[in-house]
Write a structure and sequence with these properties.
By secondary structure, this protein is an alpha+beta fold. Among the domains are: 88 residues, no CATH class; 82 residues, no CATH class. Helices cover 38% and strands 19% of the residues. The strands form three sheets. Strands 3, 4, 5, 6, 7, 8, 9, 10, 11 and 14 form a ten-stranded mixed beta sheet that branches. A hairpin with a 5-residue loop joins strand 9 and strand 10. It is extended and about 115 Å long. The chain starts with a strand and ends with a helix.
């Protein structure tokens, strides 16, 4: 063995070391393309890059190498392939072969370029959205017979004090800051056509008419049929939509307007149109009535003064699952109220703070707050009464009233101003079921992706 020497690097090598390799080395580079290979043709058909670049001015004078359309297409691909925070995208692009697929060098997708692209999308968002929707309609042959509409909320953690959109809102997570997204999709394909980003403290009922009018203008098509949830079906919205000649189908929240129609339906009539469950038992029963839609105080509401009432078609629907749920909820409510009233009557009344009649009555009233309010009459309007210097809690369960309420279990109205008899009762009902199917997964769309780009 020859003598060892140390080179400048400090590592030993042989005296007869030859820096020229005797063998040829081969290096294998792997790229994790995954679904990118399949989504690229879809994004090309959607023409995202060309549409955005036709709207957003180029910044070549600032040394722009990659256009906003190119950045947007890659970011949409990222959301579909491997969603991640909008930073260090170049690392993902290097790993997943973006240079090979899109002819874009990963280092050109740095955070600064992404930021400028997001600013461009914010500035031209409505133009881009409309152009993309019109192109997708033509490219994929959508007939736009019916549009499904609904809202969802995106929740945020942090301060966001300077944001005009992120606010404490309503719904299941009212204690969290949120923003609203109103989404319209084409019924047959589920492809989104428009998405409005709204203040988080807006209620759904205040969004409907404004959103649908914008969509109709953007698509340049008047004869659209909109299907929505019970936010669309409120009495004021029904009046406003009909006044704007916007056709709609929507369930309506509980209202005295529909009580008479629901009470007029008997079992024999309901059995004429039945949709069976898997076990053969009725899952839905459907019939139809005409209902006059109007508001007694319409003249006192500025936006409804000039709006005329109208006759609407009203589907009366009985749902097995809704009936079961309402029975279970009411049984729990009644049990909770009984336990609370008994606790007040037997262990608390005439003691400590419950020696004050007003305080005691207030605690009784709290038993019927929120969704339990309708059960106050069932319990005979419980009151704290003074009997010979001692307070007593007086109430009685009205079983006859309870039976009348139970008869309405599972019923709900669906309202429409579609009078074409080609839309039979059965056809209208099936359209409401399509709505439930699609909006179980509300924002599975490229518009949700663009919204993510807009609000990282």
């Amino acid at each position: 063995m020859g003598r060892k020497y140390r080179g400048n690097s400090g590592y030993p090598f042989k005296a007869n070391f030859n820096p020229k390799p005797k063998k040829v080395f081969q290096f294998k580079v792997e790229k994790l393309l995954g679904s990118l290979y399949l989504t690229k043709p879809l994004l090309e058909r959607m023409n995202i890059k060309a549409i955005i670049d036709s709207i957003v001015p180029a910044r070549k004078e600032n040394g722009q190498i990659v256009t906003t359309g190119q950045v947007s297409e890659v970011l949409v691909a990222n959301r579909l392939h491997h969603p991640r925070p909008l930073r260090d995208i170049e690392e993902w692009a290097e790993l997943c072969g973006i240079e090979e697929l899109y002819n874009l060098k990963p280092e050109n997708l740095n955070d600064d370029r992404l930021g400028r692209a997001l600013e461009d999308l914010e500035q031209y968002f409505e133009e881009i959205e409309t152009a993309l929707a019109l192109h997708v309609i033509k490219e994929f042959g959508l007939d736009l017979e019916e549009i499904l509409w609904d809202t969802t909320s995106l929740y945020f953690e942090g301060e966001y004090d300077s944001s005009e959109l992120i606010r404490f809102g309503y719904g299941e997570k009212s204690g969290l800051k949120q923003l609203k997204v109103a989404l319209n999709v084409e019924k047959e394909s589920g492809i989104p056509l428009r998405a409005d980003v709204l203040n988080g403290n807006r209620t759904d009922v205040t969004i409907v008419v404004e959103n649908l009018k914008k969509l109709r203008r953007a698509l340049k098509k008047e004869e659209l049929l909109f299907t929505g949830d019970n936010a669309m079906g409120t009495i004021p919205n029904c009046l406003l939509l009909n006044d704007q000649n916007i056709r709609f189908i929507a369930p309506s929240p509980a209202s005295s307007l529909f009580e008479q129609a629901i009470n007029s339906v008997d079992e024999e009539e309901l059995d004429l149109l039945v949709f069976p469950d898997k076990d053969g038992t009725p899952k839905f029963k459907v019939t139809e009535r005409g209902v006059f839609i109007g508001l007694p105080d319409r003249d006192t509401k500025e936006d409804l003064k000039e709006v005329k009432p109208f006759w609407a078609r009203c589907l009366i629907i009985w749902s097995k699952s809704k009936s079961k749920l309402e029975k279970e909820k009411r049984a729990k409510y009644i049990n909770d109220i009984k336990e609370r009233l008994e606790d007040i009557a037997l262990t608390k009344l005439n003691k400590r703070r419950y020696k004050d009649k007003e305080y005691a009555q207030n605690q009784v009233d709290k038993c019927f707050q929120g969704p339990k309010h309708y059960l106050r009459k069932v319990f005979g309007n419980p009151t704290v009464e003074d009997k010979q210097g001692q307070f007593e809690l007086v109430y009685v369960l009205n079983k006859e009233l309870l039976k009348r309420i139970e008869k309405k279990d599972g019923f709900y109205p669906v309202v429409t101003n579609v009078y074409d008899q080609n839309y039979t009762t059965k056809e209208l009902f099936l359209r409401t079921r399509v709505f439930c199917k699609y909006f179980f997964l509300k924002v599975a769309s490229y518009f949700s992706i663009l919204l993510h780009l807009r609000f990282p």
